[in-house]
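Lab meeting notes turned into a lecture example. A postdoc, R.K., suggested we walk through two folding results consecutively so the class can see how the record format repeats. The first protein's sequence and structure tokens come next.
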Amino acid sequence: MIRVIDEGYIKFESHLHQTPPPSEWVVEEVNTWRDRLYALGYIGAYEGGIGYGNISVKSELTNEFIVTGSGTGTIPILFADHFTRVSSFSIDANSVVCEGQIDASSESMTHAAVYACAPDARAVIHIHSRPHWDKLLGKVPTTSVSAAYGTPEMAREIKRLFDETDFREIRVMAMAGHEEGILSFGTSLKSAGTRLMDVLDGKYPNQYAQ
């Protein structure tokens, strides 16, 4: 079904096939960074129980990626059934096909757009931080204020940033139309996480993680 609601909810058509959860090693890999970001408050939940923040890792052999499930920002420690495999997506059709025990993150379309534009990308991290968002808005590649999270418009803004800005080199962006939203990507989860932390620590634009 299609859910078009505010913050924290899926805005695309999610086709979920109930299958066993992803392998434990993927969960362990993601949780090394997810636990750290959760402890810092960059992933979590707002008052009222609306979760925010998500992480994905992409297969080296296919276009599939595994992402933290919808609403899991409310959960301190994630286990295998909190993750979903996105097997295919269509920006034009505004739909995602996923496998697991839970719907894919509401930002899955955004993650998919990054992977489509950067073939060497293997991880995407999306966090929330109002102080850092205020500081980075317009200083790093920034999406249009009219592009809401989890929509085809946001996915197309991702492509625009790759085409028109130095997002491919900086690997961190701010979401003007998604208050507090910041995203990073990298050739590995460590690369994406390290770059994100360096930029949050004020090392942009003169120093980048490798």
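The second example is placed directly after the first for contrast:
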Amino acid sequence: MKISILVPENSVMQAIADPQYLFSAVNQFMAVAGKKPIFNVQLVGIKKEVKINDGLFSINPSHLLKDVNSTDLVIIPALFGDMKTAIASNKKFLPWIKEQYEKGAEVASLCVGAFLLASTGLLDGKKCSTHWGFQNEFREMFPNVEVIDGSIITEEYRLYSSGGANSYWNLLLHLVEKYTDRQTAILASKYFAIDIDRDSQSTFSMFQGQKNHNDESVKLAQDYIDKNVQEKMTIDELADFVCLGRRSFERRFKLATNNSVLEYINRVKIEFAKRSFEISRKNINEVMYDVGYTDTKSFRTIFKKFTGLTPIEYRNKYNKMAVN
């Protein structure tokens, strides 16, 4: 099986080296078991030397793009810096990626490599994962692609994408399992010390209120929510505060932020609660009251919805000084 790992400009070195290392290691596992190597791994670039990290590092692709006529799997590594600039500097890859897909190849993007994959048009009308910190920018640039919040791996029509940062290891292990077997994937996960079955990046995400819009009334409401996280508030109260009718306010809020009003309020409160669990010695009830919740079951349900962990699990995971 031929695997082509792209070597773009403005790329993250680890997102090139890690898949190369993983698939090569699996070949070694096969050899030790007396089997033939399954993967033919190649680094594919537009030129013979690609400098990254402002020239601090150089990568020498094993193959040039013009010489690779077919492949079975294309891996698009994470990009670095301004996404529009990164896409522009790598536009020569786009028709080649699309051509390989049309020939039957599968395509996998790692983290914000999803921006380059989406630029091919292959993701239009489909689902996708990317780093949680880039989801709003991605939605603005590619409105025809459905971003799945918090997802580690998304797979649809031979197109794969992964969540943020080290989440791409879970996608790589998923591909190893698909092309070999579960036992080999588990061996690889142990070798690289990766949790093979993690399926959400929500535990690690930080909610950053979507304020990159021009609706001043919605921004006013957002500022009020941010500054009054300890208060209970209703949609009617917020609509009155910004002098809008409720229906108009809800419609404009959703359009501007990609969140309903209630979802935004809850996400701001949960983000505040997360920070409190991380840096204070407060117990669960104290934090719950600090962010305006009075029902333990409701707080626990909403907290787990957005983080993937219960409040106790989150505190114990991220605050080693916490007392039970």
